[in-house]
Design a protein that fits this description.
By secondary structure, this protein is mostly helical. 81% of the residues lie in helices and 0% in strands.
Length: 193
């Protein structure tokens, strides 16, 4: 039963990484004239998700997890409204958030590399540390780039969308690599829990 749960987590992580890579590609390849449409679709999508979660909460018996999901859906709905109202400014805030997430993910990956991969004798754990450091540097550059770029071309929604798309793709690719390096595998192909 535990191995089934661990295997399910692994499949979920890989599927999430693939979806994030696709989102990053869409954000990178999105033509300039469709950027505002993509932002509006994201805003409306968040609002629809929040409404669906709120209706689901009303129809269920109140448990702690459903209450937490309801609160998160309210926050997602408010973010969706903010995306629709403040399109350009929201992209700046999102780039800061993605920068912080890259820094946190890089820090966690360095911790995992030293704690799990190095101790278990996995080959290539030092490469994981190097790539995690690059992830931290990318997060810092994403945050500082939005703050300090004085060129008008760097402050446009199109540029910010492409910058966030690159960050999402890099993060997803790195998540797959981290999963492959850290996940313990026996020589017979069976997974360790």
């Amino acid at each position: 039963m535990l191995l089934d749960a661990v295997s399910k987590i692994k499949r979920h992580s890989i599927l999430t990484s693939i979806l994030l890579m696709c989102l990053g590609v869409v954000m990178l390849l999105c033509p300039e004239k469709y950027v505002s449409t993509l932002i509006m679709v994201a805003g409306y999508g968040m609002i629809v998700y929040a409404m669906e979660q709120a209706l689901e909460f009303i129809g269920k018996k109140g448990s702690l997890m459903s209450s937490i999901t309801f609160v998160i859906s309210i926050v997602v709905g408010l973010v969706g409204v903010a995306v629709l109202v403040y399109q350009e400014d929201v992209l700046k805030v999102l780039s800061w958030i993605f920068g912080l997430l890259l820094i946190v993910e890089g820090g966690n990956s360095i911790y995992y590399a030293f704690t799990f991969a190095r101790r278990s004798g996995r080959k290539g754990w030092s490469i994981l540390v190097i790539v995690a450091s690059v992830l931290i540097i990318a997060g810092i550059l994403l945050i500082l780039g939005v703050i300090f770029f004085s060129f008008a071309a760097f402050r446009t929604p199109v540029f910010l969308m492409k910058l966030i798309g690159v960050a999402v793709m890099f993060s997803a690719i790195f998540s797959v690599l981290r999963l492959l390096w850290i996940w313990p595998v026996k020589k017979g192909g069976e997974e360790n829990a």
